[in-house]
Known about the structure:
It is found in: Cell membrane. This is DUF3817 domain-containing protein. It comes from Glaciihabitans arcticus. By secondary structure, the protein is mainly α. The chain has one domain (about 10-140). About 65% of the residues lie in helices and about 10% in strands. It has helices spanning about 10-40, 75-100, 105-115, 120-140, 145-150; strands spanning about 50-60, 60-65, 75. β1 and β2 form a beta hairpin. The longest helix is centred in the first third of the chain and has 33 residues, at about 10-40. It is elongated.
Amino acid sequence: MPATPRRSDAPRIRSALKLYKVTSIITGSFLLLLVLMMVFRYGPKIWGGIGVDIELGGPYGFLALTPQALITGVNLSTVILIVHGWFYVLYLFSDFRLWSLARWPFSRFLFVALGGVIPFSSFFIEKRIHAQTVTQLEQLETPKPAEATA
Length: 150
């Protein structure tokens, strides 16, 4: 018999679900920026890959695509890499917290964890996990017939 969440954990599960929702949106957005940055830096010329990074506040304008050796402003490509990495750690923490409170199988933890590394998937996975968790919470909080008469 699979483990089910405890009724007393419902408020904590709702809190974990909110954190998961925020971190999945931020992580997914930065992952898309990261993919764009990688195309600019490493992609073939046919895709627009021209060996440049995104520069903020340099001599070429407010935002510019600049070869890495010529960057004098803030290298936004590096900022995107770092921010995505740290938000992915927070995303994994929120995934772990939700997984442990909801008492899901480990395979679901791994499925959700993949959302932060496959472009666009965090948005779809978040929507699916949110709907499933809300349904699970509604079932958990609905009194059973034996409890209603007691």
